Structure prediction request, 93 residues.
Amino acid sequence: MKCLEIIELRTAESNRELWESQMQKLIDDVVKETSRESIKAYCRVMIDTDFSIHLFHDSIDGDNTGSKLGLHLASTLKEFGLVNHSVWVEMNW
Prediction:
């Protein structure tokens, strides 16, 4: 079963360039450590304080609260603002 994990961050400060560079560094570090290529980062149009990281998986182990990587990212990002972490499962019709 294919899964999508979304970690959304709403920062307290509106400094898009700073946040983009910090998010890029975080993503680069994750890719280096995990060899994960199925990770994407997004910023919200016209709202400089909103960012989203998407992790793509073939499956989620455990109780479906998220992968170790997703839980780690969500925990790390909490120091920068409000975090929402959700897990989605692909529908096969």
